């Protein structure tokens, strides 16, 4: 083989292998799975949390950990419950800002021990927290590898095969909803029980909430009771000033909640 | 023109190297980028199926009602009617798919009831709460109250 032949052969080989690998993509992808009744573009999920109904039993926290295989140690939570204690105003120092005392022992997993007594003029309530599944999510914007994304049905998900564990998104989330799974060193977060809602079930936290404080809603379904709820209640999202497009709607949210 | 090509041999070599590099890039890119990346956004669409394929642990009250219609009937009209079965009984999807594989144990009334009904100032005031030190003399809640229909006792 002379030099000319060699160059010709090599060039041909490269061109062929490029087109072959491009074709291989389609072979590997296979035929798209016969679509089940769930179609992503027909849904737009949101969550309503009614603080006036939350009793702080922690059923959601326990159910979430069990359903989603979340490590049982504290500090790993996809959802958790905070107890707010807003002390009575000091009438001699009315300029002072409110400083709510927030505690969440083990995320509310074991419920709450009685800590504050009635009659001291304080305001006390529970605030369940979870991923707000923002429509313009800061965590998605910072991911360098496209491992976290907003799904077409409005759920912020993590691609565990692509996550590098760089923790950018953990810092970016204004709501503190992400953690690094110590077993895989990849990020983890509330998936809005994507494996359940795509099968027609509700999320684990909504399933077990005894008072109906949590309500999963599909905003694209005009018959979903969430529309009625949003119309008849004064709801608020957390940190609206961050313009994250949060879809966690809180009813009865106090101004002191951060 | 011909003279330019004789002198411009080095240009052709450089061009060939550039072209070769481009081909290597195209081949590597086609091999490394997963199928469909970018179709729905800057992510691998297969991840949606990965997440959706995770196992379910909580069967949901509709699955419970398929067999336990008698309990549904008992709960009808009670304050606990809309409490999910698995709120107290725990995750039982395994039992729902194959009843023989897992026999649910009765929840301990002492802890389960008090998680919701022990007195706590942060709970909504109208929610029924008791102080276990003052109420019940330490007897099990279920001795007096029927968990499936708490109004009857």
Textual characterization of the structure:
The complex is a heterodimer of chains A (258) and B (153). Chain A has 258 residues and is an alpha+beta fold. Chain A has a single domain (44-251), classed as Alpha-Beta Plaits. Chain A contains seven helices and eleven strands. Chain A has helices at residues 3-29, 59-68, 138-142, 168-172, 194-197, 204-208, 225-232; strands spanning 45-50, 79-86, 101-103, 123-130, 148-150, 156-158, 179-181, 186-188, 214-218, 235-236, 248-251. Chain A has a four-stranded mixed beta sheet, covered by helices on one side. Chain A has a three-stranded antiparallel beta sheet with strand order 3-2-4, with helices on one face. The longest helix of chain A has 27 residues, at 3-29. Chain A starts with a helix and ends in a 7-residue tail after the last strand. Residues 30-35 of chain A have low confidence and may be disordered. Chain B is mostly helical and 153 residues long. Chain B folds into two domains: 2-52; 61-144, no CATH class. In chain B, helix 4 packs across helix 5. The termini of chain B are far apart. The mean pLDDT of chain B is 90. Chains A and B meet through helix 1, helix 2, strand 2, strand 4 and strand 5 of A and helix 2, helix 3 and helix 8 of B.
């Amino acid at each position: 083989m002379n030099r000319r032949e060699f160059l010709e052969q090599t060039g041909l080989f490269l061109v062929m292998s490029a087109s072959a690998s491009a074709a291989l993509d389609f072979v590997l992808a296979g035929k798209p799975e016969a679509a089940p009744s769930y179609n992503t573009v027909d849904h737009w999920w949101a969550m309503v949390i009614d603080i006036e109904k939350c009793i702080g039993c922690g059923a959601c926290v326990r159910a979430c950990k069990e359903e989603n295989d979340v490590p049982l140690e504290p500090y790993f939570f996809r959802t958790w419950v905070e107890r707010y204690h807003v002390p009575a105003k000091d009438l001699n120092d009315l300029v002072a800002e409110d400083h709510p005392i927030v505690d969440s022992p083990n995320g509310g997993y074991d419920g709450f021990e009685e800590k504050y007594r009635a009659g001291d003029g304080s305001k006390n309530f529970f605030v369940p927290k979870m991923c707000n599944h923002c429509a313009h999510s800061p965590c998605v914007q910072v991911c360098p590898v496209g491992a976290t994304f907003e799904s077409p049905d409005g759920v912020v998900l993590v691609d565990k095969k692509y996550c590098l564990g760089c923790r950018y998104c953990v810092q970016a989330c204004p709501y503190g909803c992400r953690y690094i799974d110590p077993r895989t060193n990849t990020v983890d977060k509330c998936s809005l029980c994507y494996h359940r809602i795509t099968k027609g079930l509700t999320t684990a936290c909504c399933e077990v909430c005894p008072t109906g404080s949590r309500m999963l809603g599909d905003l694209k379904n005009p018959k979903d009771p969430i529309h009625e709820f949003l119309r008849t209640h004064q709801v608020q999202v957390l940190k609206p000033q961050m313009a994250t497009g949060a879809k966690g709607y809180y009813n009865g949210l106090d101004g002191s909640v951060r | 023109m011909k003279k330019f090509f004789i002198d411009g041999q080095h240009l052709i070599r450089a061009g060939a190297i550039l072209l070769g590099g481009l081909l290597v890039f195209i081949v590597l890119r086609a091999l490394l980028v997963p199928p469909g990346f970018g179709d729905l956004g800057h992510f691998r669409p297969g991840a949606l199926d990965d997440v959706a394929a995770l196992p379910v642990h909580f069967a949901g009250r509709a699955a419970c009602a398929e067999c336990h219609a008698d309990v549904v009937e008992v709960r009808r009209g009670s304050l606990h009617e809309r409490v999910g079965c698995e709120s107290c009984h725990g995750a039982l999807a395994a039992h729902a798919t194959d009843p023989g594989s897992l026999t649910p144990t009765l929840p301990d009334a002492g802890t389960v009831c008090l998680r919701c009904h022990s007195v706590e100032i942060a709970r909504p005031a109208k929610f029924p709460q008791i102080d276990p030190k003052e109420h019940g003399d330490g007897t099990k809640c279920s001795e007096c109250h029927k968990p499936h229909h708490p109004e009857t006792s």
